[in-house]
Amino acid sequence: MKKTLNTLATVVAVVGALSLSATAQAQSETKVNPWKQCGIGAMIFDDNPTVAAISNIIWDLGTTAVTSASASEDSCEGAKVVAAQFITETYASIEHDLVKGKGDHLSAMLNIMSCSDDSAQTIRTELAVNLANDDFANASTEAKAESLYNITEAACSKS
Amino acid sequence: MSNFLSLLIAIFLVIAASKSFAHNNTGTQQDEKIENLAQSRQWQKLLHLANGEPEIESTAFFLSDTSKANFALTELKYTIAKVTENPILENGFSFKCNYPARTLFLAKHGIIDEFGLSECPQLIEWIGAETFDISIIYADGYLGNPASFYGHLILKFETNDLTGDLFTNSLNFGATVPDQENPVVYIIKGLFGGYKAEYSSNYFYRHNLNYTEVEMRDLWKYRLQLGQYQKELLAAHAWELMRTQYTYFFTSRNCAYHLAKAIEIITPEDILSSKHPFVLPIDVFKSMEKMDNNGMRLVAEPEYIPSRQSKFRHSFNQLSSAQQQSMKGFFASSKSLKDMQLNKDPELLDVMYDYAEFALTQAKSDEELKLSIQKKKRDIQLTRIALPANTEISKVSKPEIDPDIGHKPSLIRFSLGKFDDTEFVDLTIRPAFYDLLSSGGSLLPNSALTMGEVGVRATTHSVELSRIELLKIETFPTGASGLQFDEGLAWNLKVGGERNYLDGLSNSFEWYAQGGAGYAYEVLNTATAYFTLNGRISSPNELDSNVFIMPSIGLLGSLFEQKTHCELSYIYDVNLHNERSRRKIQCGASFLQSETKDIRVSLSSHFETQALVGFSWYW
Question: In the predicted model, what is the mean pLDDT of chain B?
Fold first, then answer.
């Protein structure tokens, strides 16, 4: 449990963003983008892909694994945000499973996003295209995670 | 008529009197029942009372004044009144759902009507499902952080959720430590109660990430074999504990202690004594492993969750020697996989990928090195993803010895010895934990980790303090791949004070700090050979010498299934050079080792020679 002023500020920003966006969400019916509207983008995943950086954020946030029963699917407390957080925090492990073709993190992502196992091959093919792209290779972990989330959501809607 | 009226009145009075008596009698019985419940072990455990005092420091957790006499009874009466009224509290929960364990307890004993956890949807959501199990996760000891030397415990829910293990909820107990805390302040405050501690809950994937991917620690999952009421009570109590706070003491009131005290609400006997000055996570399993619960063992056989490093080493060892050499060649050169014709072997590519991930976590702030590994990783990714996907996940086999096997952590040892013509008796007291001759599943192999070891020596002429080992860490790891960051670096760090009985001088007490590094190798699958270069600074001895350089070679292994260790060092006196420099030999062995005792023999020779036989009692 590490807490610094910086990370506390991040936590406040994240929590603030979460609650503000949740309020905004209640007032609108638009679909949520977890990165842009729910504060995941405020986390420090910039150019450091190591999980050590993620680890600090985990303990600082001290979040619970409780999602409100009253939260709608499109709110910042819904399953989409949980999936987005999971993909961002464990991006390296999910990518690792996808490249190899199988693994616990890949299964967990498919399940939390209500995807069938058949989607894995489609996501793998899309990821192969991304990996060959230099811009993608140099992108931040957060951007890679958002891309993977979108690929997965698209693949799941087809399956 | 008047007689008949008199009779009716008389009957009425008798009935009224008997009803009143019955009512008073029922009330008395109920009072007695409540008084008995207040004294029951389970109620006292729900309040976390130790010697009548609550160990929970958050006064808001309690409904009555904890300092008053008969606190347990008063708290029970208040709880019954509140449960009956069941008001909505400030946090939005009903009283029953804010105190579901207390409510379950009262329902179980017939004080209130039936109560089920399903009445509290937020609690069920927190647990993950209405049908669940509970496990305790043990994270191996970690030498990278003093607070993690002895391992860590987490309570985890097990559900059949499709998202699998990673999305189950888990409960962690830890001190609240500011980031960038000075290490010395950290140790002092941790030892002497300078931090507050509390529970937090989180998805298990976050713990899995931190332990197995960042700190490279293996995890062990011990599933509790509980009945339905026990499961529900423990889960409900875990929910209540989220609002509690404690003072943290690294050695005695730590994660192991407080988690054990939480679990004790469903065990027939205490897991840990509240009087033991040193509590280690592994104590919890050693105790629970012996407990029966309704005809079954309280804990099932543990499940092994390997770290990224363990997975990589396992898969590396599955490769042929030629594949291993190819892999080392790839990471040592600037050539691509295609250039080296390694682009068609998915098995080799998978191991390379495992290693690249591991190496990236170890490169830390070396940006140039990280870029180099990233480039290799990308080559591996692009090559591997073009090949067919795996259809199975390779499982890493469980180590032979479970963590709960091994001697208890604290030691008292009596030894008889002789050096030159002097016979002596040594008393050694060690709060924790193990040395190079210890065996057990929770110990880092070929390692020593001791804190606060004190030795007293008695001869016919004197009784004196012979040594204080404030901290001693020695590790000679094997099984390394030889690749960068996995080279099997052996190292040691020792801080303390001692009388040097073997240097041929007066036995003055000298404070010292010593450290060294080297390499260790596995020999014939049964022993570990090592060499290290060590340095030592101490307070001046009789000849004003205080700086020493000590190259050492050693062998750790088993002889007739008994652990043995021999080390040959050359002690070079930097102040007096060859005049006082000489080789030193130390050999030791452990016999008849069990959870509570063993026999030690040792022979040491420097300027003088000493032989020792000791009987150890572990507790």
Answer: 90
| Interchain pair B176, A54: CB under 8 A | no
Token pair 């990589």 in the structure block, residue: B312
Encode pLDDT of B392-428 as tens digits: 777 888 888 899 888 888 999 999 999 888 899 999 9
Closest CA to B235 of B147, B167, B170: B170
Q: Is residue B405 part of a domain?
A: no
Residues B347 and B280 placed together within one structural domain of the fold:
no
Chain B closest-CA separation from residue A39 CA (Å): 18
More reliable by pLDDT, B11 or B281: B281
B204 and B286 part of one domain: yes
Same domain, B298 and B374: no
Residue B321's domain spans which residues? 311-385
**Which residue does chain A place closest to B214, by CA atoms?**
A52
Cα A143–Cα A145–Cα A150 angle in degrees, nearest 5: 95
> What is the ipTM metric for this complex?
0.84
User: Choosing among B204, B214, B396, which should be mutated to test the A contact, i.e. which has the most A CBs within 10 A?
Assistant: B214
Co-location of B161 and B301 in the same domain: yes
Region of B528 (left: φ > 0; alpha: ψ -120 to 50; beta: rest) is beta
| Per-window interface: B 390-419 vs A, CB < 8 A | 390-393
Q: Which residues contact B174 (CB under 8 A, 6 or more apart)?
A: A1, B197, B198, B200, B248, B255
Contact (CB<8Å) B209/A128: no
* A36 occurs within a structural domain: yes
- Asked if the structure places residue A15 within a domain, the reply is yes
Tell me how many residue pairs between chain A and chain B have CB atoms under 8 A apart: 136
Name the domain count of chain A: 1
Number of independent structural domains in chain B: 4
**Using the beta-carbon criterion (under 8 Å), do A89 and B206 form an inter-chain contact?**
yes
Q: Residues 6 or more apart from B342 whose CB is under 8 A from it?
A: B326, B330, B348, B349
Q: Give me the residue from A4, A96, A112 closest to B353, CB to CB.
A: A96
Q: Which of B158-167, B236-245, B506-515 has the lowest mean pLDDT?
A: B158-167
Task: Tell me if B196 sits within 8 A of B247, measured CB to CB.
Answer: yes
| Same-domain status, B431 and B579 | yes
Contacts of A154 (CB under 8 A, 6+ apart): none
CB < 8 Å to A90, chain B: 205, 209
Contact A52 B122 (CB under 8 A): no
Task: Flag residues of chain A having pLDDT under 70.
Answer: 1-32, 37, 39-77, 159
- On chain B, the residues whose CB falls within 8 A of the CB of A50 are 360-361, 364
pLDDT at B241 over 90: yes
Residue-wise pLDDT for B178-214, tens only, equals: 878 888 888 889 889 999 999 999 999 999 999 999 8
Contact B200 A1 (CB under 8 A): yes
What residue in B sits closest to A86 (Cα-Cα)?
B205
C-alpha to C-alpha distance for B450 and B430, rounded to whole angstroms: 7
Which of chain B's residues have a Cβ under 8 Å away from the Cβ of A99? 353, 381, 384-385
Residues B290 and B353 in one domain: no
Go through B70-87 and write b for each residue having 16 or more CB atoms within 10 A of its CB, e for each that does not.
ebbbbbbbebbebbeeee
- Min distance A95 CA to chain B CA atoms (Å): 9
CB contact under 8 A, A51 and B350: no
CB contact under 8 A, A102 and B179: no
Residues in chain A closer than 8 A to B179 (CB atoms) = 2-4, 7, 56, 60
Question: Do B459 and B426 contact (CB within 8 A), yes or no?
Answer: no
What's residue B111's pLDDT?
Answer: 93
In a domain, A69, yes or no: no
In a domain, B499, yes or no: yes
Contacts of B601 (CB under 8 A, 6+ apart): B588, B589, B591, B611, B612, B613, B614
Residues B197 and B261 both lie in one domain: yes
**Where residue B240 falls among pLDDT bands split at 50, 70, 90?**
very high
- If asked whether residues B515 and B587 sit together in one domain, one would say yes
pLDDT of residue A49: 37
